[in-house]
Amino acid sequence: MLLSERWGWSVQVAAEFFVNATSSKRPFKLDSSTAAELVETWLVFPTADITPALFRTAIEIQQRFQLSYWVAAIIAAAQQMGYQRLYGEDLSAGQVYDSVTVINPFDTDPRS
């Protein structure tokens, strides 16, 4: 999927990956230099910065859809970058937030 589609991500998602990948609570824990190297390789793809405009949009999405701020910020970043699909396992597959539809990449049901 990463090689066959145009995709981007946000600085927030990069940070979340780094924190989770290096967490001692994870059985697959990476050392911080390896995790940082992975993030660096992915930073060649479009990356949404956390800006005042993105923050304001995230707050609006958070309030309208009753989501956590962090999830709303990811949706706001997808909207800002012009993406219509958001891949994630923690949101309801098929849910539409304005112009962004959630897709669970691990869902084997083709109707989702």
Strand order of the main beta sheet, please?
3-5-4
Low-confidence stretches: none
Question: Span between N and C termini?
Answer: 16 Å
SSE series: EHHEHHEEE
Number of helices: 4
Alpha-carbon Rg, integer: 15 Å
Please provide the count of β strands. Answer: 5
Oligomer: single chain
CA-based shape: globular
**Whole-number count of domains:** 1
What is the helix fraction of residues, given as a range? Answer: 40-55%
Summarize the structure.
With 112 residues, the chain is of the alpha/beta class. The chain has one domain (9-103). Helix content is 44%, strand content 12%.
Plain-language structure description:
A hairpin with a 2-residue loop joins strand 4 and strand 5 (100-103). The protein is built from four helices and five strands. The strands form two sheets. It has a three-stranded mixed β-sheet with strand order 3-5-4. It has a two-stranded parallel sheet with strand order 1-2. By secondary structure, it is α/β, with parallel strands linked by helices. The mean pLDDT is 89. It has one domain. The chain has helices at residues 11-21, 32-42, 52-65, 69-81, and strands at residues 9-10, 47-48, 85-87, 96-97, 100-103.
